[in-house]
Amino acid sequence: MLENRLFDEIAIGDHAELTRALDLDDIRAFASVTGDLNPAHLDADYAAASPMHGVIAHGQWAVALISAILGTRLPGPGTLFVRQRFDFLAPARPGDTLTAQVTVTAREARHKHLTLACACRNQRGEALLRGEVEVSAPRLKLRMQAPDLPQVMVQAHVGYGRLLSAARRHPPLRVAVVHPCSSEALDGAIEAWHEGLIEPLLVGPMARIRALAEAAHADISALQIIDTPHSHASASLAVAQVRAGHAEALMKGSLHTDELLHAVLDKDLGLRSERRLSHAFVLDVPGHPQPLLLSDAAINIYPTLADKRDIVQNAIDLARRIGIKQPRVALLSAVETVNPA
Question: Please, what CATH class does the domain formed by 2-144 belong to?
Answer without folding.
Answer: alpha beta
